[in-house]
């Protein structure tokens, strides 16, 4: 029996319904025996096996497109994506982003930061954040060690007459009972990074200023101010520039001015040996952290956060900088 008769015989046998269900690979086996398992036939056989196993190993298109994690035992939501989409929210989002794009385009023609050039050069003080309504709180994020199993609690609301920001809560330094965490007890308030049109990444440009100005009213606790700037490499994402903030108890407001030259570089709570100044033209976020291990209630009221240019301050950097390849 030649090769044509053998292939025809397998084709005739595959017409039957029972053979098609029980032995779907007879044709590939016949061709493989006739051609002594050439590389092309091996490739076809592997493709055939993958097509048979694909339904058992593949992930449904809803799981891929939905992007939602489903816990074991949780009922699967088979609602199509187009039914979850809110058309009104989509239109509002497009209108918002196109408005931002228009303002960015017109601002570039006006000058830096959308201001005339002469005003930008002579500017001495700029208020970055002020709290004059509920929408101003949307620019901030409050968190605590409760997210990792701790017991501290922190909240954020508007102060009296809706003119200030009040951060309050309870600090607890007891570590969670997970057998791994040794230290705990912190509460932090952090600003959200600025975003442009269509969620493009932006930065705060404070290169024309040299001092951070805050108007606060605290309860006597020491705080830590953290400034996050853009970095070159991904492993530097935890780098922060920090300095201390000491508050006074009582009903009186205090104006705190901290030169940017005083901020020191730290990573994950550890001060780095290699110090270098803060990039003021690439600032992303600013945060205020409490972690003095004094358990109990706390509160901090903030009027505004601004930057200013102090002509009397001429220091570039307050800490020793190691020179690489120094001259002999």
From TrEMBL:
Keywords: Chaperone, Mitochondrion
SUPFAM superfamilies listed in its UniProt record: Galactose-binding domain-like
Major localization listed first in the record, in broad terms: mitochondrion
Domain annotation NADH:ubiquinone oxidoreductase intermediate-associated protein: ranges: 129-302
Entry's Gene Ontology cellular component terms: mitochondrion
Stored InterPro entries: Galactose-bd-like_sf, NADH-UbQ_OxRdtase-assoc_prot30, NDUFAF1
GO-annotated molecular function: unfolded protein binding
A UniProt-annotated Pfam family: CIA30
Domain of life (superkingdom): Eukaryota
Tagged with keyword rRNA-binding: no
Subcellular location(s) per record: Mitochondrion
Record-level GO BP terms: mitochondrial electron transport, NADH to ubiquinone; mitochondrial respiratory chain complex I assembly
Quaternary data: Part of the mitochondrial complex I assembly/MCIA complex that comprises at least the core subunits TMEM126B, NDUFAF1, ECSIT and ACAD9 and complement subunits such as COA1 and TMEM186. Interacts with ECSIT. Interacts with ACAD9. At early stages of complex I assembly, it is found in intermediate subcomplexes that contain different subunits including NDUFB6, NDUFA6, NDUFA9, NDUFS3, NDUFS7, ND1, ND2 and ND3. Interacts with TMEM70 and TMEM242.
Known function: As part of the MCIA complex, involved in the assembly of the mitochondrial complex I.
Family as reported in the entry's similarity comment: Belongs to the CIA30 family.
Protein name per UniProt: Complex I intermediate-associated protein 30, mitochondrial
Organism whose genome encodes this protein: Hucho hucho
């Amino acid at each position: 029996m030649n090769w044509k008769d053998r292939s025809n015989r397998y084709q005739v046998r595959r017409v039957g319904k029972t053979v098609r269900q029980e032995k779907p690979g007879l044709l590939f086996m016949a061709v493989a025996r006739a051609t002594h398992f050439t590389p092309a036939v091996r490739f076809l056989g592997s493709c055939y096996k993958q097509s048979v196993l694909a339904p058992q190993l593949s992930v449904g298109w809803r799981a891929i497109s939905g992007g939602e994690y489903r816990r074991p035992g949780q009922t699967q939501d088979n609602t199509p994506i187009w039914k979850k989409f809110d058309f009104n929210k989509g239109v509002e989002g497009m209108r918002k982003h196109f408005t931002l794009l228009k303002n960015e385009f017109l601002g570039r023609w006006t000058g830096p930061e959308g201001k005339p050039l002469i005003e930008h050069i002579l500017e001495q003080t700029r208020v970055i954040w002020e709290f004059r309504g509920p929408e101003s709180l949307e620019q901030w994020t409050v968190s605590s060690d409760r997210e990792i199993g701790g017991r501290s609690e922190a909240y954020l609301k508007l102060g009296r007459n809706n003119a200030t920001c009040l951060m309050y809560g309870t600090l607890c330094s007891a570590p969670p009972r997970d057998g791994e965490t040794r230290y705990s007890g912190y509460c932090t308030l952090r600003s959200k990074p600025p975003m442009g049109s269509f969620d493009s990444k932006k930065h705060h440009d404070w290169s024309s200023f040299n001092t951070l100005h805050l108007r606060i009213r605290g309860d006597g606790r020491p705080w830590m101010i953290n400034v996050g700037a853009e970095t070159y490499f991904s492993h530097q994402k935890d780098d922060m520039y920090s300095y201390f903030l000491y508050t006074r108890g009582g009903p009186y407001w205090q104006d705190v001015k901290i030169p940017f030259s005083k901020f020191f570089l730290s990573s994950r709570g550890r001060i780095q040996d290699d110090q270098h100044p803060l990039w003021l033209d690439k600032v992303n976020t600013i945060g205020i952290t409490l972690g003095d291990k004094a358990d109990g209630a706390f509160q901090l009221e903030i009027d505004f956060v601004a930057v200013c240019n102090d002509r009397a301050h001429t220091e570039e950097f307050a800490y020793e900088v190691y020179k690489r390849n120094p001259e002999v």
